[in-house]
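Deliverable D2.4 — example input (structure tokens):
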């Protein structure tokens, strides 16, 4: 996770944060009127961006996604839940680039996110879905803690609202943008100092596995606990009611959320050249 903070010393990375935030906000704001849950979320074709921004710009894409979402909230859904929205959208971009490098989905000899092979396309789909679920887990758990929205309803809606654009639109966008970003020397692994770029293998692989288990366990386990508490899936969750703030949901989804964050610190950095 060192690169999340060390990137701020690189002017080009700071510019990429601003660019990412501006692009995300610009695509979010026009759709604020297409409300799915009043005051909480809306139809979001902009969800195509965080995964792409994360893979291309790394931590700059993650910060940009978080800040861009917060800017978008000022145009219709700003509230106490925006705190969890900030963290969730950060994870939406952060998880994909971490797992791309550390989960063993692509060859260590060719980790460029160019999507030129079937293996890389499959890897993209997997990290996009996991990033979408991570975002959904954090936000749905946070609003369950606040007692505002049922976990099952919000978690399922955000998962679909994020993953569909990220996969369906994200692949062609990635194929178009990657060669240009690479040509302009804006790929984050080319911008950052070598000692600040994570390396796969060892503890990084364990951290990637722990991150994946935390996301899936928190989301699936949280949904199971929510169903037992009487909550419903998607919009049925608002019709059936159920126990919002259920202890089982708070514990299971909370453990997944904490595991997601802790797993970031397990993933190691290379030693400086001696």
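Example output (designed residues):
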């Amino acid at each position: 996770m060192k690169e999340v903070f060390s990137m701020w010393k690189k002017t080009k990375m700071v510019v990429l944060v601003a660019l990412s935030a501006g692009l995300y906000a610009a695509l979010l704001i026009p759709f604020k009127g297409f409300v799915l849950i009043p005051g909480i979320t809306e139809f979001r074709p902009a969800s195509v961006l965080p995964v792409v921004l994360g893979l291309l710009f790394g931590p700059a894409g993650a910060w940009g996604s978080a800040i861009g979402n917060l800017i978008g909230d000022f145009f219709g859904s700003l509230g106490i839940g925006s705190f969890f929205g900030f963290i969730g959208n950060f994870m939406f971009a952060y998880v994909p680039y971490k797992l791309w490098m550390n989960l063993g989905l692509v060859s260590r000899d060719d980790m460029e996110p160019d999507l030129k092979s079937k293996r890389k396309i499959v890897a993209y789909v997997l990290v996009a879905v996991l990033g979408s679920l991570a975002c959904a887990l954090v936000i749905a758990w946070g609003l369950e803690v606040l007692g505002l929205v049922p976990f099952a309803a919000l978690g399922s809606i955000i998962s679909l609202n994020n993953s569909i654009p990220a996969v369906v639109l994200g692949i062609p966008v990635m194929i178009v943008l990657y060669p240009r970003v690479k040509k302009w020397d804006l790929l984050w692994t080319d911008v950052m100092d070598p000692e600040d770029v994570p390396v796969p293998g060892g503890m990084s692989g364990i951290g990637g596995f722990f991150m994946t288990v935390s996301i899936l366990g928190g989301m699936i386990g949280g949904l199971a606990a929510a169903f037992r508490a009487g909550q419903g899936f998607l919009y049925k969750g608002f019709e059936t009611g159920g126990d919002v703030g259920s202890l089982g949901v708070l514990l299971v989804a909370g453990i997944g959320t904490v595991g997601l964050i802790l797993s970031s610190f397990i993933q190691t950095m290379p030693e400086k050249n001696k």
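Residues 269-274 have pLDDT under 50 and may be disordered.
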